[in-house]
Amino acid sequence: MTTTQNGINYYNIQTRYAGIAVTDTGGGGLPVLFIHGNSSCREVFRHQVNLLKGKYRVLALDLPGHGSSLNASEPRQVYSMPSYARMVIEVLEKIGINRVVVFGWSLGGHIGLEMLALFPKMIGLMICGTPPVSAGTDNVALGFRPGLGLAGKAEFTQEDIKVFVSDTYGVNASHESFMIEAVIRTDGLARQYMFEDFLSPQATNQKLLVETSETPLAIVNGADDPYINFDYIDGLNYRNLWKRKVFNLAGLGHAPFWEAPELFNPILVKFLKDFQ
Q1: Residue 126 is part of a domain; what is its CATH number?
Q2: What is the gyration radius of the CA atoms in the chain, in angstroms?
Q3: How far is CA 111 from the centre of its chain?
Q4: 19-24 vs 57-61, strand pairing mode
Q5: What is the pTM of this model?
Q6: Strand pairing partners for 128?
Q7: Nearest to 267 by CA among 210, 223, 220
Q8: pLDDT one-digit tens code per residue, 9-20
Q9: Residue from 46, 125, 115, 40 nearest 83 by CA
């Protein structure tokens, strides 16, 4: 069943992983897919959807265990970056998307990195708040600052929710009710199992992917992001880094596209123009 509001379509796609809620502006423009972060939801991309609709076919979805999507029927198998990537690919294939640019934020960026090796129809990738790390706990730690404890915590207290929202969206960002509701709604196992898999020695070597993939990769971070190690991200040997630089937006945190869309969106628009 599809509902339409303000020219934007909302519907559900049944996948092997869970029932997935999708936002789709339709139209014949280049498809652009937005993938949200841990314990968030597709509403966080409101500023980008409203900007791009009409010129692009803008898509956004809620990951399994998040937002309006269903919880995974097999949590241990579904709540991981590789499985999320395969879920996204299944959704795109069922919709009939043959060419797409992806913007992935935080966890969504890691999902986009997984797609580099799985989905050649992804012709461009932009990531934000997403260090491309090698497998194993020590290698993952290189890409982040200390203090990621909440990212893999199954049960949140009220204080946890408050801290998570503040750190994730930015102290000075607009905090709306959907953000808190998204954290409360998230299946706690999605955090726990995803993080356990991320730290596994068998995890994907995302550092190797960005060093070898020919797919254009744009990186736009907030320069005050509390989670990521900037020296690590800035120092990798990327195969095809857009503009040959990592963009670090001064004074912004982990979600610059939400905190200051007037600064972030022009960079996104320039990246998308390269594929027209």
Answers
A1: 3.40.50.1820
A2: 17
A3: 7
A4: antiparallel
A5: 0.98
A6: 105
A7: 220
A8: 999 999 999 999
A9: 115
Q: In whole angstroms, what separates CA 222 from the centre of its chain?
A: 15
Q: What is the DSSP string of 188-247?
A: HHHHHHHHHHHTSTTS--HHHHHHH--S-EEEEEETT-SSB-HHHHHTS--SSBGGGS-E
Token reading at 129: 């708040």
Question: What's the token pair of residue 131?
Answer: 């260090």
Grade residue 103 by pLDDT with cuts at 50, 70 and 90: very high
Tally of domains in the chain: 1
**Which stretch of 168-177, 255-264, 266-275 has the lowest confidence by average pLDDT?**
168-177
Comparing C-alpha atoms, which of 9, 14, 187 is closest to residue 90?
Answer: 14
Q: Could you count the other beta carbons within 10 Å of the beta carbon of residue 65?
A: 25
Looking up tokens 């945190």, which residue turns up? 253
Chain segment 40-51, per-residue pLDDT in tens: 999 999 999 999
Q: 93: which residues sit within 8 A by CB, 6+ positions away?
A: none
Q: Are strands 122-128 and 217-222 parallel, antiparallel or unpaired?
A: parallel
Q: Where are the alpha helices (DSSP H) in 33-157?
A: 46-52, 75-78, 81-95, 107-116, 137-142
* Structure-block tokens of residue 246: 């990592």
Distance (Å, whole) CA 44 – CA 36:
7
Cβ–Cβ < 8 Å for 169, 255: yes
Per-residue pLDDT reduced to its tens digit, 54-75: 999 999 999 999 999 999 999 9
Give the domain extent around 18: 2-274
What type of residue is 219? I
Nearest to residue 227, comparing CAs of 113, 148, 166, 164? 148
3-state SS class at 105: strand
